[in-house]
């Protein structure tokens, strides 16, 4: 026997209209009521006829997600947050990776009209705003994450500059003076903001060493390469990598070369991916609630009037503030050797 929306409403002790609003991800449903409805619908194995829903509401109840990549702990955490928020609202996800290619990102976005109700896009490519605006379909609501900006869509960012400034200040305050920075990709918005924060913080301390940068690519391999260079050549007091994956690669290279962290050289990262707390020594980093970034981006998208949001509501696009997490990898020994 097919379970109907009226059956869900009866068991959840709400109206059928409330069930419809909750499962369609619309506003004006209390979160505890929405959670109860989703739970009851799951227990009763209620399966709405999506084709009929799409015809009657002109909505697919599907959200598109276009990311630069799907590999790594950062994107795994981001998708976890988006997926959790979507499931709470009975929404489906259509996920695409552009593999770091702006052209593939454009192709993915051109395919969204008619297939999704809205789209979440992580677009950290510098200088791509005009090209991105040209392919964002005006009829498809969009929220951009970690993007330099766009007049065509809501933008939600992490305060990368402030986070990198705070980490560099921390390393300076505990006594490190020669601080090397392993950069991210040169055309990446996040990477450039973190480099800018490092540079500005370094300039605040008169006896700090000169700027010291190494090329990186936001992956373990480039961090490992930087660590090998530091292990065999001139050695800084501390290495600040623009993300945790490079910091972990650097840490492995230094340890493999026989250097002690932090006794011989300190290491710090950015993001606080789950692995950061389990390596030895545990990694000092800037904590970004990555899952919350994804969930909040979806919530912002659902506030769009085209998705049932209130056109008069104030949309909070305040950047997420990273928090300093001090662990064993950045301590300053009383006397440094070597």
UniProtKB/TrEMBL annotation:
GO molecular function: DNA-binding transcription factor activity; transcription cis-regulatory region binding
Residues in the signal sequence: none
Residues that span the membrane, as ranges: none
Family annotation (SMART domains): HTH_LACI
PROSITE patterns in alphabetical order: HTH_LACI_1, HTH_LACI_2
SUPFAM superfamilies, sorted: lambda repressor-like DNA-binding domains, Periplasmic binding protein-like I
Stretches assigned to the HTH lacI-type domain: 3-57
Pfam families in alphabetical order: LacI, Peripla_BP_3
InterPro entries (alphabetical): HTH_LacI, LacI/GalR-like_sensor, Lambda_DNA-bd_dom_sf, Peripla_BP_I
Keywords: DNA-binding, Repressor, Transcription, Transcription regulation
Family annotation (PANTHER family): HTH-TYPE TRANSCRIPTIONAL REPRESSOR CYTR, LACI-RELATED TRANSCRIPTIONAL REPRESSOR
This protein's name: LacI family transcription regulator
Taxonomic lineage: Bacteria, Pseudomonadati, Pseudomonadota, Gammaproteobacteria, Lysobacterales
């Amino acid at each position: 026997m097919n379970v109907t929306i009226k059956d869900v409403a009866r068991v959840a002790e709400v109206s059928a209209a409330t069930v419809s609003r909750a499962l369609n991800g619309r506003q004006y449903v209390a979160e505890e009521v929405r959670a109860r409805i989703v739970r009851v619908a799951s227990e009763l194995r209620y399966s709405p006829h999506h084709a009929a829903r799409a015809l009657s509401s002109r909505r697919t109840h599907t959200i598109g997600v276009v990311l630069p990549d799907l590999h790594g702990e950062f994107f795994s955490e981001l998708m976890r947050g988006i997926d959790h928020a979507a499931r709470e609202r009975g929404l489906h996800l259509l996920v695409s990776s552009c593999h770091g290619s702006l052209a593939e990102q454009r192709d993915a976005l051109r395919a969204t009209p008619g297939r999704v109700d809205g789209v979440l896009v992580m677009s950290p490519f510098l200088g791509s705003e005009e090209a991105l605006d040209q392919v964002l379909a005006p009829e498809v609501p969009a929220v951009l994450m970690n993007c330099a900006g766009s007049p065509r869509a809501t933008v939600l960012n992490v305060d990368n500059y402030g986070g990198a400034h705070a980490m560099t200040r921390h390393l300076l305050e505990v006594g490190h003076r020669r601080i090397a920075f392993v950069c991210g990709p040169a055309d990446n918005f996040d990477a450039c903001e973190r480099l800018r924060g490092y540079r500005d913080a370094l300039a605040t301390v008169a006896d700090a060493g000169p700027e010291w940068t190494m090329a990186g690519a936001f992956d373990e391999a480039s961090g490992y390469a930087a660590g090998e260079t530091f292990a065999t050549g001139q050695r800084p007091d501390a290495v600040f990598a623009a993300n945790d994956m490079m910091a972990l690669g650097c840490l492995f290279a230094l340890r493999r070369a026989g250097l002690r962290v932090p006794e011989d050289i300190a290491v710090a990262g950015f993001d606080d991916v789950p692995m950061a707390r389990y390596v030895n020594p545990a990694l000092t980093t800037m904590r970004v609630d990555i899952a919350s970034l994804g969930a909040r981006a979806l919530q912002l998208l659902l506030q769009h009037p085209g998705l049932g949001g209130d056109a008069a509501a104030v949309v909070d696009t305040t950047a997420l503030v990273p928090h300093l997490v001090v662990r064993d990898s950045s301590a300053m020994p009383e006397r440094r050797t070597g």
